[in-house]
Specification:
Blueprint (H helix, E strand, L loop, with lengths): L7 E5 L4 H12 L3 E5 L3 H13 L4 E4 L6 H15 L4 E3 L15 H37 L6 E6 L3 H4 L5 H21 L4 E8 L20 H9 L9 H11 L11 E4 L9
Parallel strand pairs: 1-2, 1-4, 2-3, 4-5, 5-6, 6-7
Helix pairs in contact: 1-2, 1-8, 3-4, 4-6
Bound molecules: nicotinamide-adenine-dinucleotide.
Length: 270
């Protein structure tokens, strides 16, 4: 029996990269998973991967930059699988530019996707995480099991990164708010933690193509890998493994921390 048997999880940004690997891994561990992504095609592909693996998945294309959409996402979990136990806030985006060229629209977009989606999804989940736990405590003196909220920061929030004023503003806030929510929700048996991936090979870190909004110039990619003690870029599964640990009962006494998943990257060792 998998260690998440009987649990229900939502994973945002689960159509690609780290989110997909995490959704697949949580399902493999026994959870029913709502695969959320604004892009329907990759979201459906993730759900198909889970189904082929013998797991249970539902798809949501809600853009949780809006609170109403976040409420719809949470309703999908409850209507399809009866409850919600685990939220993995993973959706993220970059729009790198030097600070002197930053504008409000670019700042707001990156804050919205990296911070507001996590804020709204977590807020919408409160009736199913906090209220349910509160009722269990009132009726039985303790929670039936720990519920879990994971966030996604970045090693860039620990080291700083040229061209990422907007992104590090969001990812730094994730570290701080993880600590605040761990304190607020701890009494309800809800663990709140974050991962801070380093250089992980996904669409966000692919070689930047002419005219593309995302990606990293090849010379900077080479430099990033040189800073990794373990000598290789990370894979989405490297981060999924840590999400899976944090949402399992193995991590029931871990809360309020941000775990760097960066291969010992210089400056990002916690
Ligand atoms: N790849 C890395 O090296 C790295 C490093 C540090 C942090 N991260 C963080 O890890 C997370 C996953 O990144 P990734 O590298 O897998 O990126 P990715 O681009 O491969 O996947 C991100 C997914 O999020 C989706 N998405 C974007 N906006 C969304 C929204 N509003 N609602 C729902 N889904 C949305 C995208 O469609 C995409 O499928 C992000 O938060 C990212 O900032 C990644």
């Amino acid at each position: 029996m998998g260690r998440l048997e009987g649990r229900v999880a939502v994973v945002t940004g689960a159509g690609r990269g780290i989110g997909r690997a995490t959704a697949v891994r949580l399902a493999r561990d026994g959870a029913a998973v709502v695969v959320n992504d604004v892009d329907p095609e990759p979201a459906n592909e993730t759900a198909e991967l889970i189904g082929r693996d013998g797991g249970q998945a539902a798809v949501s294309t809600d853009d949780t930059i809006s609170l109403d959409a976040a409420k719809r996402l949470v309703r999908t979990a409850v209507e399809r699988f009866g409850k919600l136990d685990i939220v993995v806030n993973n959706a993220g985006i970059t729009r790198d530019r030097m600070f002197h060229r930053m504008d409000d629209e670019t700042l707001d977009f990156v804050l919205d996707v990296n911070l507001r989606t996590a804020y709204h999804t977590t807020l919408a989940a409160m009736p199913y995480l906090r209220d349910v736990a509160k009722q269990e405590i009132a009726e039985q003196g303790k929670v039936a099991y720990h519920r879990k909220i994971n966030f996604t920061s970045s090693s860039a929030a620990m080291t700083g990164n040229v061209g990422q004023y907007n992104y590090t503003a969001a990812k730094g806030a994730v570290i701080a708010t993880t600590k605040t929510l761990a304190r607020e929700l701890g009494p309800f048996g809800i663990n709140v933690n974050a991962v801070a991936p380093g250089f992980i090979e996904t669409r966000l870190t692919a070689p930047k193509e002419e005219g593309s909004d995302i990606g990293i110039p090849q010379n900077l990619r080479d430099m990033a890998v040189m800073l990794i003690a373990l000598g290789r870029p990370g894979q989405p599964e490297d981060v999924a493994n840590v999400h899976a640990f944090l949402v399992s009962s193995d991590a029931d006494f871990v809360s309020g921390v941000t775990i760097p998943v960066a291969g010992g990257q210089l400056g990002a060792m916690g």
